[in-house]
Each structure stands twice: as structure tokens, then as C-alpha cells.
Design brief:
alpha+beta, 8 helices, 12% strand, disordered C terminus
Length: 354
Amino acid sequence: MLKNTLITLISLTVATVLSLLFVHFGNGTTSVAIIYILAVVFVARYSDGYLPGIVASFIGVICVNYVFTYPYMHLNFTMAGYPVTFAGMIIISTLISTMTSHLKLQSKIINEREKLLMEAEKEAMRANLLRAISHDLRTPLTGMIGASSTYLENQDSLSREEKEKLVQNIYVDSNWLLHMVENLLTITRIKTNDTPIHKTSELLEEVVGEAVQRFRARFPQAQVQVEIPDELILISVDATLIEQVLINLLENAFFHGDPSSPIELKVSEEKGQTVFRVIDYGPGIDEALLPHIFDGSPSSPGTGGDSRKGMGIGLSICKTIITAHGGTINASNHKNGAQFTFCLPAQEEENHES
């Protein structure tokens, strides 16, 4: 109530002052009504409900008649032409006020609906993530339990090679679980704003090189061909998070592609963006999964009985990180496999040439 009163009083006072100045310096009153109509629009736009705009309309008409119409400082609606003029002004002002308030109410309803839709999407994503977590973590845990149980129950009858294989399986599965936990912590921190994105200027070559090095340390048998521009390029990113995206995509390419064919990592600058492409040569992605592949769904091609080959939460983490950087990410198929592409806004500073 106080807010509406203040907005109405201030708007009409400003309109009156402007009208007085206009009459004083312009020697005319033809635009005074327009000034008051604008004040009514302002009141209707920034106040709550219909009443303030309608009240402002009536007060504006009275001010125009009382202050700016002969005989001055007297109300007179009987002079020739005045009734039609003031009736038109009150109708126009009231209609504008009502329409503005109605549009504002519609906008509020639309915003509330969009907020509800966003909440529904968040709930759906949480559900998908929970399904992905249960899917991606259950199999390695089961494998570790089975391998350790076999080792403990049959250690006297197992050969050295069999023991080493069981321990190796436990080691691989435990590393996979550690990687998944790191991914989950990352997406949780970003979505709860506990760890806001901290962008710094980084050399593109160093970010890509560090990601490929970490990937090769985890999968020494993997083949990766890297193609980046020759010039030195600076990108404004959180380097650790972008490296995690690249590692996740390289892992997907490694597990889903043909092991005998190298993974391709290509980076280029296109239309004010830095574009990263991770290309594998394998069976590709089921076309039915492409629209939902970043939702965290555990239904991924090639999962079989090995959760390490699932796409699940890894791609959801990628989308969260890239979106937080103001970029986009998508998946597609090419003639001989799959391709993941993400784009980051190019740094505004000019690139330094080598």
C-alpha cells in the first residue's frame, strides 16, 4: 500500500513539475495531457494492482483541468469542447492503466509457470542422476566384492596369475569409483553454488595437454590424436573443470569406440567461439538416445554388464560444467562413429601469435 502511494504521488508530482516547466518555456498546454498519461503508464507499470493506475488517471485529469485549463485554479468541465477532451483523456488513461496492469499480471503468471517448469526439470534431472548413480556404481562395487570374496575364499588354490588378475580388477574398479565420486562432487558443488566458476586466462595448449596427459596416465593403451591451432590461444575458463570435461569425453570415446582406431581431439576457433570436438570410430550412438544423452540417464549404448562403459552421469557433469561456462555441448553421429562437440565463448582479448 505504501509503495503504491509513493509511486503515485512521485509520478504525479514529477508530471506536474514537467508540465509547469513546459508551459512556462513553451507557452502552450497542448502536450500537458500527454505528460500526465505517461505518468499514469509509469504508475501502472511499477505499482501493484489496477487501482493505483485508475486513481492516477482521475487525479491527472483533475490536475489538467484545475491547473492548466482556463479559468486557472478552478474546476470547469462545462466550457465548449472540454467535456469531450477530458472524457477522452480519462478513458485513454484508464484503458492504458488497465492494459498495463493486465500485461504485468500475465507476465507474472508466465514467470511463475516457467519457474514451475524449471523446478520440474530439476526434479527430473535429479531422478535421472539417482538412476545413473545406482547404475554406474552398482556394477563396479559388485565386481570388487566378488573379486575380493573369490580371493579370500580360494587364495590357497589360485595361481599367481589369477590372484594378480583379481587384484587388478579390484584396482581398476576402485579407480573408476573414485573418478565417479569426483564427478559427483563437481556437479554438486556447481549446482549448489558452493564453488562458483572461477575463470582465469589459460593457454589452450596447456589445458588440452594436461587433460590428455591425465587421460593417458589412466589408460596407457589408448591412442589419442590431438589437433589444435598453431597460434597461442588464450581461453577464459576454470581449467580444472574443462580438463575434467575433456577426460570424461575421451573416456567415453575410449570405451565406446574401436580400440584399434585412435581417438581424435580437435580444437578450432569458429565465429567467436573455441570449439572442441572429440571423435571416436565405433558403432556410434543410438539415435533415440541423442536428445536425452546429457540428462544423466543410465540407458546408454554398450552398457551391457560393465558400468564403466555407461555414459550416465559423466555426460551430465560435462553439460553442467559447459553450461556454467556459458557454452553449449551436443552429441552426434558421423559415418564411422560418434562425435561430441562443445563450444566456449572466445576470450575477448586478442590472441597472441607465436
